[in-house]
Each structure stands twice: as structure tokens, then as C-alpha cells.
Amino acid sequence: MLALQKKINIFLILISSWAFFNPSFGIANELKLSESLVVQLMEIWQSGDDKKLIAIAQTDMVYHDVPNNHHFKGIEESRSYIKHVHNWASDIKIEITKVHHYEQAALAEWTMTGIQSRPIKNRIAIATNNQFTLKGATLIEIENGKIIRAADYIDVLGFVIQLGAEVKLPGGKIISHQKTKE
What we know:
This protein is α+β, with helices and mostly antiparallel strands. The chain has helices spanning 2-21, 26-47, 53-56, 74-88, 156-162, and strands at 57-65, 70-73, 89-101, 105-116, 131-143, 146-154, 167-168, 174-175, 180-181. Helices cover 37% and strands 36% of the residues. It has a 6-stranded mixed sheet.
């Protein structure tokens, strides 16, 4: 009887190990899913094909634009967030520089480049035609195999300075795309 129990225990250990390391089972599969979802999201941002968001996100997802303190609730508002960039920018390219992935979440660090070729609604009334480089990170949370929450953390100050904005600091210094002025 003891020999049979020992064989059963060994069998269970082998099956558990196989399931853990097999790409179609367990944690390994969840990690690949989270990485895949964040990469697909970045590809959607680059292409502007916001309809593809439907395949990778929950219909009740929330997309948080952190620097502008705006929450886009639901898939349609989240799609509009992606579309708005393609309304003012052209030649958009996104390079993912690092992906951190976990069981139910992933984080992509990225650099976006493009040209501000049309006005930015409610922000910049003209097309500067300036090239820009925008660094950021996107965090996603996953539920039932799809994105339930996404959040963008981006360098808005660096971005608007590239488009011609100036920032006056306390004490009189001005930061601009050209140089820092006294």
C-alpha cells in the first residue's frame, strides 16, 4: 500500500511540474498572455486601429490617462482615447523598450515618435509640424483573459515643450525647447 501511495505522489509531482512549465497551462500561460496583451495594446496605439481593442479588452474596461487625470470608462471611451492621438499626430511609431509581465498584469515602457501635424483639440490650436518624442509607460490589469484596466504614465511636460511651450519656473527661469532662459 505504501509503495502505491509513493507512486501516486511521484505521478502528481510530475503532472504538476509539467502543467507549470507547459505553455498551455498554469502560470507560464498567464505570463505569456499578459505580455502579449500589453504588446497588442501598444500595436493598436501605433496603428490607430482602435477596433482591435474589442478583442483584447473587457467591455467595461477603464483606461486612465494619469497626467491629464482623465478616466475613459468602457470600451468605446477607451477607443476614443486611442483615436484622439491619430487625430492630431502623423507618422506615429512606438518602440517598446521593456516589458514587465506578471500573472494578472503587465507594464510596457515605450517611446512614441511622430509629428504634431494637426491641432490638438482643447489644447494646441495650431499644427506645429514639430517632431516629438514621448516617453511613457502603460500598465494593464487583466481579468478573465482580457484587459480590465489600463493606465498611461507619460512625460507631458517634455512633450509640450517639444511643441513650442515654455514653462516659467518660480524665480524667473523659463524652460523651453530652445534652452533654459534666465
